[in-house]
Amino acid sequence: MKKPNKKREILVKELKKLIPQLDEEALIFLIKQANTSIYNLHVEEMNKRLAGLNEMEKPRGRKTARAGKAAGQEEGEKRAGVWIEDAPGGTSFIIVLGTMRKIFSRIELQKLVAIAKSGSSGSAGGDPGEQLFTWFRKHRAMCFLTAG
Fold it and tell me: Is residue 13 over pLDDT 90?
């Protein structure tokens, strides 16, 4: 059982005193902020667990186009390449771009595969590379920002 946190108890008490003074709009805002904070904590926890799993064992999931260690590349250097790993639980995947890891749902990955395969069928949907870029820009723009 956790030891009571005095600072937290003081903050909860203060918040309880303030709640009666807030209107509905302010309460809705606080609830949304609390839900966002809780979600972010869960995401951070999941990312830490995934990083720990990655350190404990070599990836054994499905992989594509994985770049191996280049001749003369030091261990601490940034790795190049792109590959896909199964995430724990089997409902999502991790796309690894160099040292960046992003979690994608099965539906998202299926959409990416369909876009990539569209070029081999000769369909008039445009270049698959451009379509992938457009999909990432529209749905996962943060991947571009964090990939460096």
Answer: yes
